[in-house]
Specification:
By secondary structure, this protein is an alpha/beta fold. Helices cover about 35% and strands about 10% of the residues. It is built from 18 helices and eleven strands. Helix 12 links the parallel strand 9 and strand 10. Helix 9 runs antiparallel to helix 15. It is elongated, with a radius of gyration of 33 Å. The N terminus and C terminus are likely disordered. Keywords: Glycosyltransferase, Golgi apparatus, Membrane, Signal-anchor, Transferase, Transmembrane, Transmembrane helix. Pfam families: Exostosin_GT47. InterPro entries: Exostosin (IPR004263), Exostosin_GT47 (IPR040911). It comes from Trapa natans (Water chestnut).
């Protein structure tokens, strides 16, 4: 066959061959470009994307998660807007981040408020080599800023709707059945000024303060706190200014459980919707109630049962509630002092009072102010009164019908100032305001039950109880194993002097300063409590990061034992006070039992006080 000469090829065929060659070249260029970009993307994501979070510049694909962005700049109505008292460092702006991403899932937080179970974000959420981070990281980092006097001390205050606090004060006549609380909510919660009758008080700083007024006093003291922040991501703790004590006081008698629980449920519903709550699911929140814990621990839905269920609400279990009497068997409440009549405005007021208490002549070996409790079978008050009447070494201020000097601040303080020791048996519940009035007078307290002070006020009182007090077990009085006079006379004058000096030195920690003023160097009961809350939250956060718990095998029903541990101790064992805190068995519990009756008796005592 003869080969066809190219010169003889028709023109149309030549054009077709030319077009085919052009398409082949174009296809080759496309493939070459795709291969080049494929190599570039592979190098970008696989090679450079493998750098760790410690590299100066991370070239991998950007991602944002709430659990690795500690600076949550919450836009909310601040507690002290426009007052000039807010003290924040320059805020970190998150304006470019999507709000839905900020509210992404936080690391889970453990349920028990006095333990910490570390729960890091799931490993699948972390990039290779990345260290887990937490939404409270920025708050912890403020401690490292040595130029910031508020580092590690910032408090964020929720700006609650007024129905949770101020509206109650406007309707103050309904706060108690027997007491006109309106006068006691004046002067920032201190009540009306006291006249210096007989020179018992100082010339200034003394007020007729109601023992249930801590809600208002504490909230107003918080307004003077020097490290309030508007940025919750900086906060060492978050304060909830809910007047829990005043709320329940309105409805304890004659109201059904729906009314009693309404404000508590409303508060919790409001809190859990706030972005600040999500930082630690409420573990960093605290509130104050100037009442005993049993008013907030109703166990059932029976209408006849006492109080509300605030402290049993799931969200409230996460928070810390500061009360004037806490439960030895629960982990979410903490004891703080009852308010006394003394609210100094200056450091010098405190120092002058302490010096005066040191110089007083005390003619009575011991004294007691109170009434018997015939309706409480285990009460030792009757025996204490009998012992006091049988000796010339005791001063007795009996509280009963007729003219009742027990409710005269000047009469009470005058007696305490004249005594070396002041007897403080259980009141209607474990605790008494009288214990703090007596220590304010420089009188050494004598306790008969560890729940009256030793396991209650561990933030404010020394753990070594022998330094400032005398303990005589109740059974020794019941069984007449010892007389109070003989026991107290065993203490040498030198030891009495040391103990009294210890009590006088404790005075600043046991009083609430005038909320309208600001002490300079003295730390009062408010300062001690706030710092204790901050320390508690900080320990919890550090434990979460470190993946450890604060205690080994924590049992909430022996919470009182953990409060007595020294720093670094992680385990509890048998204790000499175990018989005092044997929790009632099923059917004999708090509901309808001793604790509820104590709460009811406390209110009956208030009724007697006003009659």
């Amino acid at each position: 066959m003869r080969r066809r000469s190219p010169t003889n090829t028709p023109p149309d065929l030549m054009e077709k061959g030319s077009a085919k060659n052009q398409q082949s070249r174009l296809y080759f260029l496309v493939c070459l470009s795709a291969f080049f970009w494929g190599l570039l993307l592979y190098f970008h994501f696989t090679i450079l994307g493998g750098s760790t979070v410690d590299d100066p510049a991370k070239l991998g694909p950007a991602s944002f998660r709430a659990d690795v962005v500690p600076a949550l700049a919450i836009d909310s109505r601040p507690f002290l807007r426009g007052t000039g008292l807010v003290n924040d460092p320059p805020p970190t702006s998150l304006a470019n981040f999507d709000k839905t991403e900020i509210e992404a899932e936080d690391p889970p937080i453990p349920d028990n408020s006095r333990t910490s179970e570390a729960n890091d974000p799931p490993a699948s959420k972390l990039l290779e080599g990345e260290k887990p981070s937490f939404p409270f990281t920025r708050a912890l980092q403020t401690v490292e800023n040595k130029s910031d006097p508020c580092g590690g001390r910032y408090i964020y205050v929720h700006d609650l709707p007024p129905r949770f606090n101020e509206d109650m004060l406007k309707d103050c006549k309904k706060l108690s059945l027997w007491t006109n609380m309106c006068k006691f909510t004046t002067n920032a919660g201190m009540g009306p000024p006291l006249e210096n009758t007989g020179g018992v008080f100082s010339n200034t700083g003394w007020y007729a303060t109601n023992q249930f007024a801590v809600d208002v006093i504490f909230n107003n003291r918080m307004k003077q706190y020097d490290c309030i922040t508007q940025d919750s991501s900086l906060a060492a703790a978050i304060f909830v200014p809910f007047y829990a004590g005043f709320d329940i006081a309105r409805y304890l008698w004659g109201y059904n459980i729906s009314v009693r629980d309404a404000a508590s449920l409303d508060l919790v519903d409001w809190l859990v919707k706030r972005p600040e709550w999500n930082i630690m699911e409420g573990k960093d929140h605290f509130l104050v109630a100037g009442r005993i814990t049993w008013d907030f621990r109703r166990l059932t839905e029976n209408e006849v049962d006492w109080g509300n269920k605030l402290l049993f609400l799931p969200a409230a279990i996460n928070m810390s509630m500061l009360v004037v009497e806490s439960s030895p068997w629960n982990a979410n409440d903490f004891g703080i002092p009852y308010p006394t009549y003394f609210h100094p405005a200056k450091d010098s007021d405190v120092f002058l009072w302490q010096d005066r208490m040191r110089k007083l002549e005390r003619k009575w070996l011991f004294s007691f102010a109170g009434a018997p409790r015939p309706g409480i079978p285990l009460s030792i008050r009757g025996q204490i009164i009998d012992q006091c009447k049988r000796t010339n070494s005791c001063k007795l201020l009996e509280c009963g019908s007729g003219e009742n000097k027990c409710h005269s601040p000047s009469s009470i303080m005058q007696m305490f100032q004249s005594s070396l020791f002041c007897l403080q048996p259980q009141g209607d519940s474990y605790t008494r305001r009288s214990a703090f009035d007596s220590m304010l007078a420089g009188c050494i307290p004598v306790f008969f039950h560890p729940g009256s002070a030793y396991t209650q006020y561990t933030w404010h009182l020394p753990k070594d109880i022998t330094k400032y007090s005398v303990f005589i077990p109740e059974d020794d009085i019941r069984k007449r194993n010892v007389t109070i006079e003989a026991r107290l006379k065993e203490i040498t004058p030198e030891q009495v002097k040391k103990m009294r000096e210890e009590v006088i030195n404790l005075i600043p920690r046991l009083i609430y300063a005038d909320p309208r003023s600001k002490l300079e160097t003295v730390k009062d009961a408010f300062d001690v409590a706030v710092q204790a809350v901050i320390d508690k939250v900080t320990r919890l956060r550090k434990n979460i990061i470190a993946g450890r718990t604060e205690y080994d095998n924590f049992f909430e029903e022996i919470t009182w034992k953990y409060d007595l541990l020294e720093e670094g101790q992680r385990e509890v064992g048998a204790h000499e006070w175990d018989p005092f805190f044997s929790k009632p068995k099923e059917g004999e519990g708090d509901n309808g039992g001793s604790s509820v009756e104590a709460a009811k008796n406390s209110w009956k005592n208030e009724q007697r006080a006003q009659s």
